[in-house]
Amino acid sequence: MFTALALLFLLQFAAAQSCNRTYTVQEGDICDSISGANYVSTYQLWAVNSAIIDCQCDNLQPGSVLCLGLAGEDCTNTYTVKAGDTCDSVSSTYGINTTILYANNPQLDQNTCDNLYVGEVSLLVFSCFDPP
């Protein structure tokens, strides 16, 4: 019951916020390719579209219109993970601490960072998006 109420609240909250940018899904798109081409983190793309994209992002439908960022919370300072990257190396290279990296990318395992993967688009800014 609580989960259903929380989901309903989240959907109402998301619907009340206005979308800053949109993208129409094309055949063959995956979340990482959409994210990389449009300067939106993979997590942000999922979070603002969680009502239509599942957490594995394997249910994209060509023709669907996705919100890329919400007004006032549209982060475009991104980095696409490359082979050999670690959370520490990305943080060091871009001059942000790992606390900020993890806060802006809550999908990352804060203990081991072993789920950072090549092609993932991550946020590098100090603050601009509040995860649901």
Descriptive overview:
A two-stranded antiparallel sheet has the order 1-2. A two-stranded antiparallel sheet has the order 3-4. It has helices at about 1-15, 30-40, 40-50, 85-95, 100-105, and strands at about 20-25, 65-70, 80, 120-125. The protein has five helices and four strands. The radius of gyration is 15 Å and the shape is globular. It is an alpha+beta fold and about 130 residues long. Mean pLDDT is about 80; it is low at about 1-15.
Short description:
Helix content is about 35%, strand content about 15%. It has helices at about 1-15, 30-40, 40-50, 85-95, 100-105; strands spanning about 20-25, 65-70, 80, 120-125. A two-stranded antiparallel sheet has the order 1-2.
Shape: globular
Helix content: 25-40%
Give a short account of the largest sheet: 2 strands, antiparallel
Strand coverage percent: 5-15%
SSE class: alpha+beta
Overall number of strands:
4
Total helix count? 5
Order of adjacent strands in the largest pleated sheet: 1-2
Order of helices and strands: HEHHEEHHE
As a whole number of angstroms, the C-alpha radius of gyration is 15 Å
Query: Between the first and last Cα atoms, what is the distance in angstroms?
Result: 18 Å
Question: Which spans of ≥5 residues are poorly predicted at pLDDT below 50?
Answer: 1-15
Oligomeric state, counting identical vs distinct chains? single chain
Task: Summarize the SSE layout with pairings.
Blueprint: H1 2-16, E1 19-24, H2 31-38, H3 42-48, E2 65-70, E3 78-80, H4 87-94, H5 98-104, E4 121-123
